Every structure is written in structure tokens, then in C-alpha cells.
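User: I'm preparing a small set of examples for a lab meeting where we compare how different chains pack in three dimensions. I only have the primary sequence for this one, and I'd like the structure in C-alpha cell form so I can line it up with the others. Please keep the answer compact; I'll paste it straight into my notes.
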Amino acid sequence: MGDHWHRTRWGAAVATVILLSSATAAYAGAPSGEFAEFRDCPYENPAVKQCVYAEVNGGDLTIGAIEIPFTQTILIQGGVEIERQGETLVETFVGAKDGETVSKTPEPVERNGSLRMRQTATTELARAPSEIKIDPEALITGEGAALTLPVRLHIEGPLLGRRCHIGTSFEPIELELKTGTTAPPPPNQPISGSFGELSLNEGATILTVTGFRFVDNAFAAPAASGCGAAVAHVANRLVDEEVGLPAAAGINTAILVGNLKRAYAPAVRASAEQTEP
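Assistant: Understood. Below is the C-alpha cell output for the 277-residue chain.
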């Protein structure tokens, strides 16, 4: 199927959501059946028009001299408020009900292809969930960032303490992930992502993208902070030297592989509704 078909179907899905209305009600149950994955979507909020559930189950993140392979599933979930401003639909991401909009999944740290002794890195959301941007048009066409994700790396290991991070809320690692081809500064070379396969469920209430590949190799990473607690001035410097921080744009790479679902929030609410008439 061509891009025009994908664009038309996605656009129709978003436009239909805008026309749906919902009353404020109490929901004693949880989403069920094919909507069960959206249980942490803030679907009770009538301003939330869509629910998002994404699984990152492959790829890796390279920062300077270290690489973090995504060997376990990372979830990105929440809801989307959609507002019409003139001829434009403006989307605002709303965080997951359980507060874990991006699940915290420790992964082993590798350097030059070898595991670092007892070191792990957890990719965490560095700013408010509203800073997450999912652009349906860019997702399909490959032009621009399909997923904007401000993150930080929580590095854990001997002598590093509990607050050792690469990236902060003030200076996050700003991933602008594409399904198209990147244009990084050297020495990195262009790499390409892909949209995957688009499908709708029987009721046209869940849109699924299977096998996406999001890429970005044009981002920078700041120096480490918070490492080593009382000896932070030493530990931060050691982490910087080990990793090669700050790492300028052109030597870092992010590849996220997985699946994405967007559901109509009214349908999610209906599957959970247990209210008195």
C-alpha cells in the first residue's frame, strides 16, 4: 500500500476521534479484551481522545564510547489530547496513570563490544510527558521527527551512587526519531528507519503499526551529573572520561524497533464502563 493510503486512513482515524464525545463518569473496572493494553491510559479524562501503547523491543542507544542494547521491552504509554486550531489538529501527550509513561528497564552497558562490570543504564523520561511528541504525518512520510523523546540515562554500578545520570530535565538527551533517512553531522553517516505495517481492528477503533524502526544519529549528549554522591566531582569526571562526555552530535545513535497502537479513548472507556444508569 502506498503512502497516500496510509495517510488517508490515519487522517480519517484522527478526524473521527475529534467527532466523538464522551460524558464524565466513574469507571470501576479496567479496559478489557483487545483494549486491555490501554489500562494505564488516562481514558477517564474526557479531554483525552486517543490512547497510546508502544513497545520498544529492539535496537540500541550509543552514547560516546558506550552502547546500551534494548534487550528487554520498554513501554511508552499514555493518552493524547487533540484540539483543532484553525485547519490544524494539535496533539498533546498525557502521561500514563501509573506515572510510568516510559517504563524503567535497566540494560547492560557495553563498551567496545564488551560488557562493563556490573554497570547498567536505564532510559528515563527527562521532562514532563507533554514534551513527548508523536507526529502521525512524519511517521508515515518519513519527513521530520515521528517521535520526539527527551530522555536521560540513569547509570548504576559500583561507586556511582543512586543519582548518576547522563542528561537532566534542564539538559536532556533530545531524541528526534525518524522513520525516514537522517542527515547527521560527520563522522556519522545517514541511516534510515521505516514505518512498518499499518492495520486497523475490525471495529476501526485500534490502529496498529507493527515493526516500526525509529532512528536518530544527529543528537548530542551532555556531561554526567550526580555520580558518586560525596565524591561527585571525581566520579562525574571519571564517567565523562569513560564514556567520552559531553558527546557532540555526530557520534551518537539511537535505534528503536517495536510496535505502536493508538486506540479511540471512547472505545477504551466503553470497555471499562461499569456505571449505574
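A couple of notes for your slides: Helices lie at 3-19, 136-141, 232-243, 265-272. The CA atoms of residues 40 and 97 lie 5 Å apart.

User: Perfect, thanks.
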